[in-house]
Amino acid sequence: MEGDTETQNLRSVLITGGAGFIGSHLAEALLERGHQVTVIDNLSTGRFENIAHLTGHPRFRFAIDTITNEVVMDRLVSECDVIFHLAAAVGVELIIKNPVHVIETNILGTHAVLKVANRYRKKVLIASTSEIYGKNNQVPFSEEDDRLLGPTTKARWSYSTSKAVDEFLGLAYHRQMGLPVVIFRLFNTVGPRQTGQYGMVVPRFVQQVLRGEPLTVYGDGQQTRCFCDVQDVVRALIGLAECPQAIGQVFNVGSTEEVTILELAQKVLALADDIQSSRGAREQGSRGEGERIVFVPYAEAYEVGFEDMRRRVPDIRKIRALIGWEPKIPLEETLRRVIGYYAMLEASRR
Ligand code: UDP
Q1: What is the DSSP code string of 193-235?
Q2: Helices (H) and strands (E) in the chain, counts
């Protein structure tokens, strides 16, 4: 079978950013499938704890280093069959606070990976983002849609632009040099190990509810997102890596289950109450929803003049047609796992 041959060809996998939220789940899934997995991560946003449980595994190894270290990357790339390039600076808060770091990490990092990959003719899957579509409101977004970005004076758009340069560069390496490159645009991805430190809404809401703090809904809460479980995302990435026809193409990867941020806050509150009351823990539900959700203006949450995306929904027909992928895990199930994960973390800190 072609798929089996391809899996054989992809025996040894290098994951840049493999100690991050998505990278660590990908590493786990690949180990389960029998691959050799090497992670390179400088632990800037990734955390060693995310991969600590894998360190004893006979087919797992890691390098704590940056992807711009040419000597290290040369060796790791020469020894692998395929590279998942996930190392990047992400998160809206980080972009606003440290745009130099974001632009440099994303553009120079991807350039470094592509250069070495090309030296050894190794397949590269590059992580991109739904931010690519900018503030286009014509949902669902499909891969060939135009991008609509704000001015360069607004830091937010530097992230989208840095990732667009990554995509251009990847596609150029493919077209001009014949390098096997696949690009996947991740929409909002959620699951255990995602940190709220860089502004991501689900871990923030979950930590807030567990600490008895009000949930901070930005703006009017009517903006929508589709949250995809990280395990579904990982399945998509492996499927794309194993599919020779995916080379030279761009794919959306995300859920199509659209929720408003206010609905998300309400779901997190209801699930946390449900979990806590089934454990006989203190009842917070007696406080009215009004006290448990606060609306925070964007200017206060981010910066004056901040532009948010009103809706963000992927068109996933392309990946479905090619590899038969679609998300399977409902949001509620993911939220339960995320609540369980953070409850465990909080308990272990006490
Ligand atoms: N958001 C919010 N409260 C928070 C963090 C985020 O209401 O504490 C909102 C944010 O303004 C956005 C949505 O949740 O509309 C998703 O934010 P996130 O940063 O997770 O992802 P992105 O904006 O990149 O889709």
Answers
A1: T--STT--HHHHHHHHHHTTPPEEEETTS--EEE-EEHHHHHH
A2: 14, 13
Q: Are 260 and 201 in contact (CB under 8 A)?
A: no
The phi, psi pair for 215, rounded to 5°, reads -80, 130
The secondary structure of residue 130, as a DSSP letter, is G
CB 17 within 8 Å of CB 41: yes
Type of residue at 245: Q
Told to judge if 159 belongs to the known catalytic residues of this protein, a careful annotator would answer yes
Q: Which amino acid is at 66?
A: T
Q: What is the dihedral of CA 198, 200, 205, 210, to 10 degrees?
A: -50
Ligand 1 in reach of 218 Cβ (< 6 A): yes
The residue whose CA has the least distance to atom 3 of ligand 1 is: 217
Looking at residue 145, what DSSP letter applies?
P
137-146, 147-156, 208-217: which has the minimum mean pLDDT?
147-156
Structure tokens at 344: 């465990």
Task: Answer whether CATH 3.40.190.10 is correct for domain 12-189+229-256+312-327.
Answer: no
Q: Which amino acid type is present at position 162? A: S
Assess whether the C-beta atom of 260 lies below 6 angstroms from ligand 1. Answer: no
In sequence order, what are the beta bridge partners of 259? 225
Catalytic residue among 120, 133, 159, 173: 159
Q: Could you read off the pLDDT of 312-325 as tens digits, one per residue?
A: 999 999 999 999 99
Domain edges within the chain: 12-189+229-256+312-327
Counting from 1 in the atom list of ligand 1, the atom nearest the Cα of 309 is 15
**Could you give the count of Cα atoms lying within 13 Å of 79 in the half-sphere of its Cβ?**
13
pLDDT in tens, 102-139: 899 999 999 999 999 999 999 999 999 999 999 988 99
Q: Please give the distance, rounded to the nearest whole angstrom, from the Cα atom of residue 308 to the centre of ligand 1.
A: 8
Residue 85 CA to residue 350 CA, distance in Å, equals 36
264 touches ligand 1 (CB under 6 Å): no
